[in-house]
Amino acid sequence: MDDVQDIEKAQLIMTLRSMGILSSKVLTAIEKTPRELFIPKHLSHYAYENSPLPIGYDQTISQPYIVALMTEKLDLKSSDVVLEIGTGSGYQTSILSKLVRKIYTIERIKPLLVNAKICFDKLKLTNIVSKCADGHLGWKNMCPFDKIILTCSTPMIKDNLLRQIRFGGKCVAPIGKLNGNQMLKCITISQNEYKIHFEDICEVNFVPMIKDN
Ligand code: SAH
User: Fold this and answer.
1) Cα(100) to centroid of ligand 1, in Å?
2) Residues 142-165 pLDDT 10s
3) SS in 3 state form for the chain?
4) Residue 85 Cα, ligand 1 centroid: separation in angstroms?
């Protein structure tokens, strides 16, 4: 990283703070994660702009503000075990890995997952377990999870996924039309029973969750 990127990174952190991201743990995790590693080389001068960027295969790395917001809304504890659906570049995964005990992540496009794993190795992140699969099914033999994060949009979140979260856990996901805007929702499971509560966070625009046959 050069001096210009250092300055741009500091500016990005200030922007995120001014947009309402208050968790110092989240901001520090973002500060310590080199976003330039997760994007194509020819775009690295945009690494610290607060915008999504293409990562190939018609997919995008999310806007840093949305990564920060979703991470903050998950209300992570250092003991948490998290499931992420949609590894993509692995940028969000890497940020989560700094904040929780273990993260399981699923991606359906194999070359993206291969690239993401190279990044995890470079950053010496050892608490990430990944697989190439259809995330609609979740990761049944590893549940229950404390939290689930979806980084691709779905018209509705199925019960089979939510039932992989323990009581008192949460899921943050973009819910709505596959093309166009969706509502980012935080879904909380009650402490003592399987009762779910939905909170709208803001409008977002994510790539769709694709169903493999
Ligand atoms: N959080 C990522 C952004 C991922 S974009 C980042 O920081 O880079 C959403 C990702 O979800 C894409 O890589 C896409 O391939 C993946 N995806 C879409 N449908 C999926 C499915 N059914 N199962 C697993 N991953 C899926």
Assistant:
1) 20
2) 999 999 999 999 999 999 999 999
3) CCHHHHHHHHHHHHHHHHCCCCCHHHHHHHHCCCHHHHCCHHHHHHCCCCCCEEEECCEEECCHHHHHHHHHHCCCCCCCEEEEECCCCCHHHHHHHCCCCEEEEEECCHHHHHHHHHHHHHCCCCCEEEEECCHHHCCHHHCCEEEEEECCEECCCCHHHHCCEEEEEEEEEEECCCCCCEEEEEEEECCCCCCEEEEEEEEECCCECCCCC
4) 6
12 in a domain, yes or no? yes
Binding-site residues, ligand 1, Cβ < 6 A: 59-62, 85-86, 88-89, 91-92, 106-109, 112, 134-136, 151-152, 207, 209-210
How high is the pLDDT of residue 1?
62
Examine residue 212 and state whether it is found in any structural domain, yes or no. Answer: no
Query: Based on the structure, what is the number of domains in the chain?
Result: 1
Ligand 1 midpoint to CA 193 (Å): 30
Span 72-110, pLDDT tens digits: 999 999 999 999 999 999 999 999 999 999 999 999 999
